[in-house]
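Quick one, probably user error.
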């Protein structure tokens, strides 16, 4: 299987416990052997975040998501987003799907998982709706 390097877990904990980053984007390295950090960001703009996702490549994202809940006002949840666009190569999509559970096991405290294969599934409203249901 694919290894998850320590830096990935460290950055996840910085988001979960310290709210140090708004989000972090992870990818499988070119050798297809491990999950590595691609970038972190403190940009609050959902549009900027979406722009950071490649059109034809798969990514994992941990997002410190603040949203207006239907009954409890402002809420905060840690999202785990699997970005596997339809336009990505089949092999990459299979690898990302197959490695997801190993990665999730290392990231204790994920509250909402979002699987996205196209832009509509990563619209803020769709993600907010999902976060409200959990």
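Nope, works fine. Designed sequence:
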């Amino acid at each position: 299987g694919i290894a998850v390097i320590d830096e990935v877990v460290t950055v996840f904990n910085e988001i979960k416990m310290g709210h140090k980053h708004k989000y972090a984007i992870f990818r499988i390295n070119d050798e297809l052997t491990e999950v590595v950090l691609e970038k972190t960001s403190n940009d609050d703009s959902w549009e900027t975040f979406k722009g950071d996702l490649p059109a034809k490549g798969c990514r994992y994202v941990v997002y410190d998501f603040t949203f207006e809940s239907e009954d409890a006002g402002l809420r905060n949840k840690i999202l785990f987003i699997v970005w596997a666009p339809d336009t990505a190569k089949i092999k990459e999509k299979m690898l990302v799907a197959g490695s997801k559970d190993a990665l999730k096991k290392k990231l204790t405290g994920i509250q909402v998982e979002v699987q996205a294969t196209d832009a509509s599934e990563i619209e803020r409203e769709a993600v907010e709706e999902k976060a409200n249901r959990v």
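DSSP finds four helices and six strands in the chain.
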